[in-house]
Amino acid sequence: MTAPDAGMQAERTSLAWRRTALSVAVGSLVGLRVLPPQLGAMGYAVSVLGLLWSLDLALSARRRYRDGRHLLGAPAGATTAGATTAGRSIARTALTAAGFAVTALVALVALALR
């Protein structure tokens, strides 16, 4: 007996990554409006980097969905080593989020010392 939604995991994962990309894009656009008066050129740089990150997330979502669908359609016993990009995209997302967190902390300290 198969689960009622067999094969839908790849689609749900892709949609979650797309929501994340959209959230980052919206946050970056808000930052583009709010940060430059406070941080000057650094505010623009952070916002633009956020928009680039959201583009990377959206492209990763497409790639992960394609890879997941490919793996689901692979015949039993087929070699699929190296077929996915899951680990790299998760690591890249974590490192980028950490970079933004450090940048936000530096900006907060700089504003507090003014």
From TrEMBL:
Q: Which residues form the DUF202 domain?
A: 6-66
Q: Where in or outside the cell is it found?
A: Endomembrane system
Query: Mind telling me which Pfam families this protein's record contains?
Result: DUF202
Tell me what topology the record assigns in the membrane. Multi-pass membrane protein
Which residues constitute the signal peptide according to the record?
none
- InterPro entries xref list: DUF202
What superkingdom heads the lineage?
A: Bacteria
Q: Which keywords does the record carry?
A: Membrane, Transmembrane, Transmembrane helix
| Transmembrane annotation, as ranges | 41-59, 94-113
Please identify the protein, giving its name as recorded. Answer: DUF202 domain-containing protein
Per the UniProt record, the lineage of the source organism begins with:
Bacteria, Bacillati, Actinomycetota, Actinomycetes, Micrococcales
